[in-house]
Amino acid sequence: MVISHHIADGTLHVRILHELHVTDRAAAALQIESLVHAHRPERVTVELPSRSPSPMTFSALARAQRMCQSLGVPLAATAPGGRTPLSPFGPETGAPHPQWLEHGARHNH
């Protein structure tokens, strides 16, 4: 089993039980998609297995988020215990903050 779920007050609560790998990320996303289509929730919450999930776990989450967005269903992700998950692109990775570009042109030629 890859996920568990329950429904309360119009919200589909999904818990990813363990870090996903290439072999089970599609299964997790498909299970979430099936639950959303079957239950038509007002919103979806996904509890990730850790505060710093694997790339495959983020991939499944992104796929579920795109599907929910196309249906107009808000999706939120949390880490265990309701904490905020770390961003894979946040300052902890040393990545620079994005800057707006004018007319799509690069400023640092």
- Which strand order does the major sheet show? 1-2-3-4
Low-confidence stretches: 89-95
* Shape annotation: globular
Please tell me the total number of domains: 1
Q: Number of helical runs?
A: 2
CATH domain class: Alpha Beta
Strand content is 15-25%
Largest sheet: 4 strands, mixed
| CATH architecture heading | 2-Layer Sandwich
Task: Give the fraction of residues assigned to helices.
Answer: 25-40%
Superfamily at the CATH H level? STAS domain
Radius of gyration: 16 Å
Which series of helices and strands comes N to C?
A: EEHEHE
Q: What number is the mean pLDDT?
A: 83
Protein name: STAS domain-containing protein
Region (Disordered): 75-109
Could you characterize the architecture of this molecule?
The chain is an alpha/beta fold. The protein is 29% helix and 19% strand. It is built from 2 helices and 4 strands. The chain has helices spanning 25-39, 55-71; strands at 3-8, 11-16, 43-47, 75-78. Helix 2 (55-71) links the parallel strand 3 and strand 4. Residues 89-95 have low confidence and may be disordered.
